[in-house]
């Protein structure tokens, strides 16, 4: 096997509703490896990190944005993928990574990471939802924000 080879196994998915921030509304997903949900301390730590990064990304003058966040509790750490739509059709992204052992195995590549295969499935769902609800003749932001995949594993 190649170094870094991963054998695919479905990950638990929880659709956690819509979270309002000063800059706008974000759908919230929680992905977790293994059979257990993330612990309350892990969720609290990820939420605090998310809050900090949202505040740093957007200032009070930023026009309101709509997007989604993936909190991914993987086997080697936590990834927070903050995604928001601009100009009606462009997806922006900020990825924050916290490794369990504190060592990033690919530090020189980190700023180029889009997402893992599990996160990409959610990003694709969000693209399809955006097309359906926000890029037709009628826009329905509420419908977009309520359009979660009807699955519990991905």
Automatic annotation (TrEMBL):
Name of this chain's protein: Uncharacterized protein
Species of the source: Roseibium denhamense
């Amino acid at each position: 096997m190649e170094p870094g080879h991963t054998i695919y196994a479905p990950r638990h998915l929880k659709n956690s509703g819509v979270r309002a921030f000063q800059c706008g509304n974000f759908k919230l997903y929680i992905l977790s490896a293994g059979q257990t949900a993330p612990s309350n301390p892990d969720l609290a730590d990820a939420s605090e990190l998310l809050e900090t990064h949202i505040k740093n990304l957007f200032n009070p003058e930023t026009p309101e944005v709509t997007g989604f966040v993936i909190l991914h509790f993987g086997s080697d750490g936590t990834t927070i993928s903050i995604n928001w739509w601009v100009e009606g059709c462009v997806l922006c992204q900020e990825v924050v990574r916290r490794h369990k052992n504190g060592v990033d195995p690919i530090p020189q590549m980190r700023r180029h990471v889009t997402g893992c295969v599990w996160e990409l499935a959610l990003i694709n769902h969000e693209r399809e939802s955006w097309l359906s609800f926000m890029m037709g003749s009628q826009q329905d932001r509420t419908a977009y924000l309520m359009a979660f995949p009807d699955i519990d594993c991905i």
